[in-house]
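tool_call: predict_structure(chain=1)
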Amino acid sequence: MNPPGFNRSEFLHSISMPEKHPLHWLIAIAFALPFVAITPAFAASAPVSEKQIAPWIAPEAGRDSPCARIYDGFVRHIEASGNAVVTVDATADDGFDAKPQTLRLELAPPPPGRKIPGKPPRVLVRSVLPHEAVGKLAGVRIHLTADAPGEITVQFFEDAKDNGSLVLHKTRTQSTYALVAGKNTLTCLFTGGGLDAAKARKINAIGFFIAEKQLPLAFSLDHISLVFREESDARTYSSDLRSRRIQKLETMVGWLRERGAPLGGNSGAGIERLRNEALLWDAAQLVSLKEQHDYWQSLAQHAKISANDPLFAALATLEKTRLAELRQLETGNTSLSSAARRTRVNALQAQTDAWIDTLQKRLTPVQRRWTQRDESLTFLRPDGQPYRMFAPYFFRAIYLPGTGKDQRAWDMHYLAALGFNGIRLPVIWAKLEPVRGQFDAAYLEMLFQIMNEAERHGLGISIDLHWPYPDWFLRGKPGQEPVVKQAGAEKHNAWHWTEALLDCWDRLGQTLRDVPNIVAFEVPGNEIPLGRGAKGITAYPTLVEKWSAWLKTHYNNDRSALAAAWSQSTAPNAASHALQPGENWDDNTILPPGFQGDANADAAYAENPRFWDFILWAADLQEQFTGDIVAALRKSRPDATGVSQYIMGGNHLDRSPVPTNFQSLTTYVGPHVFPGTHYGMGGNQARKAAALALKSYDSEQQMENGEARVRRHVELGLGFCPFAFSARGGGGMLMSDDDWYLKPEVAHLPRMADWIRTSWPAAPAPGTKRVAVIENTRQAAAPGVLNTLGDIFSLLQENKVHADLFESLRVIRDPALISGYDAVITDVSYADDRLLDVLKRHNKAPVLLYGRLDRDAYARSAATGYGPAATLARLGILFAPAATANILHAEADSLDLSGQWDWALVPSPSANSKNAPKYPPSIARWEPRHVPGFWGEATLLGSLKYSIGDAWHRKTVVIPKAWEGRKLRLEMGAVDDFDWVWFNGRRIGHTGEERSNWWTASREYNIPSDLIRWGAANEILVCVRNTADDGGIWKAPVQISGMAQTLLEWNPLSAAAPATPVALAPLATFLGKSALRPDARIAAELRLPDGQRAPALVFHHNWAWWVGNTAWQQGSPADEAVLKTFLGIIP
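tool_result:
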């Protein structure tokens, strides 16, 4: 008996004898060989039980979200080669259609004369399968409608990853199916091509392959179901799918309530809510209409249109109708069908659109324009109200028009309903200017449509000129092409041909000169590294030329001055650091840091004088180029404002010889450019931006579980661009999936929307002390160096002090920044002499210096007359002219903890850092993981599922018996996000949201001596809570360091100020009392293990120096006492 749907003649045809194997048909009948050996010419749809079927892409007429892109998984991953022609139509009107969504594909061979010899035309359309079902599937069932008879090959892949682009590793099996004109149902089983069951469990992606002989082919995908191996798995998947959708609708009910549409129980519950989903989207559109009404009414009033004008009466009628419709939804007092109600809401939208059209004609271009006055501290709307950027990254602009991925009007309805007031608009350079000097008209038209629709909803725009870059640009400046292929992170480097990028910005400014709702331009572009490949900037002749030219200018064409700056080091590698005889700026042969034979990057940070000149060069390059871009834009838009993106570098993607953290230069920008942050919300980068002006925003940040981060950022006065709306759902996105429901993890955004848009920081209360904290630019630029800011802002807040953060290099350039502050605090380690001179000449307030005194910014030592102690002595501050700075401690002994740790992921009880995990964890199975390293799954676009939760790390270590009596400290270079640490069962440390930039902050936890088993095994347990994207103990060093015990004693010693242990990092500075000026006062001393004493906290008039060279830490008696003592001298 043949199975249902089996066609005997078709089956016999499918196993007809191929050319290369005369016995293939016999083997095919036996189903004996694996796929790689045979593939039937045509496969028959396999029989399965209907109980094995569960929906996957299953559009329903009148039931889907009006924003849903349910076929996006396929639409985003269409590849055509050999000039094959692909036409895509992801049919979906704005609203609830009478017919379900489909995906129509028209595939054709190249037009005459366009065929590429040796490259046959073919098309691959693919998507990952739902990760919840992977491992349980037997195949898929595809329903499609073909225009004419033809054939299609269905492929299945394993280990595919969808992180912006679909990465396919192995084609496990494929079958080719004959199509009839009209409806086709294909049941495609993984084992149909001879694949065994074990390998079939690894399949996680599907593709439609159309070869040259199968072209042309035109068909519509109607829906796709999943075929499970077990009926129970199909039932569970369907049930879970329904439950997840109900949960998403519960989230929607919640945010609608917060946004002014409290539907109560009238939307139903459970299954009933699924049936009433259209009601929720009607409510969302009514909330969006209110945003439109309010925005345009405010503009009309600001334009001084008479209150008696019929325009306002018409708007009042529209708003009355809107409220009536909303009230009916809230009370359930309506007998209208969903279709009838939808007709009425659409009619109200059409009337509102007509009203906006009328008003736009009456307003002048200036009255609609978001004019940015230079003197204003904030951005301004056209009605003069202050504006904070609250603008999701609008991913619909990254695609070419006509590819089925275009934006829809409902996208803007949705954004406005959620409470956003802008969009971050990516302008993809490769799509904008595929041929140098020629902008693509169709792509520009799409951008204008997006910007126009955004304005109609009151949304401001941040213009983001974004990679990918055009091929002609990647090839490099003619005659100065890069010496390495621009691949991976290197393909984002735009500094190597700034003239071409500037020209693009110039012409883009001309093109967009009349767009009214542009708020700012992100300059110089998105995530641009300076040279983070193995060759650094030496891979780019243009950058080496710029570096050489800068050195020549900086040293006034005096080669001997450069030689002197680089030759005063006492480091073992000093001869290699010095300017070499064959290095000259006229022939571009002077090498940057990283090519002088340093043992590693840490050695270069500590000893290589070229490192500081490299930072100075990068700062000037950034300042000049960002200013040049805005100057070019201002030729067309006289009020154009730039918001900067810092040079990318210094993170785990940086493979250059000496990675550099250019966040240290966040505020070093050109005229009419304001410092922005990028993945820096609520942290130190944001503090630096807010200290200058509130015309700033974070251009990209995932929002899952980010309420605390949002609150800190907004309290600083700054805006932000949530990531992202929306390439796909899943990890990192605002939406849960291609159905475009808002994630529960980001529901805080609509709930906080009104506060985000309207809350501004209050001025400090009268009498509040104001402190300028200056970040040491050189130290901050070195990723391997501890950032000593630590908890200083929390400590200052405890003392009721208002503090702002500045960069030392920016203060050197603009000393007026710190005028008016009551005190200044800065880390003086490796300080630039010019900063100390500025603090002496341009500041009258008390200054607290802390850290090392023995090296200056060029790593020149006190032994050669350089370093902060020598400079301060010359300025007549703190130290006597003969002051010398010696090393207090040799390098601490350390135990390296990097390598394999035990690791286990468990659910987190909380998404924040307040609720500690339960100890000890109940873990049945540990697995090995390498530390340092990331264990989250985020890449460019995140993944469909992050590893969110608490990851426990366990390590056993033997503490040497010879160390007994030393003070031990656990050190971790950085942890993302929060951590709790136990040593032998007792918690010894925790870092949470109270620490600025916690995800990049180093950890240092003292280990109490009574816990240590000397000469025996000790257990370290670290719980890392990941709340979004990647996570882990990701940065070296990971070690235990041991130093002899040091005590801090106050003068005079009292019960109120007892002797306390103090933690000093290696190479802390020792100064004898004879090194101090006679009128200096020692407030506290160090008592060393050998009984010697050394000044620890010294005052001299308005100046103070503290020996501490570790991060300021809440809970440290020494840090708290030092800060309180210093603040006590402020008048």
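agent: The first strand starts at residue 53 and ends at 57. Proceeding to next step.
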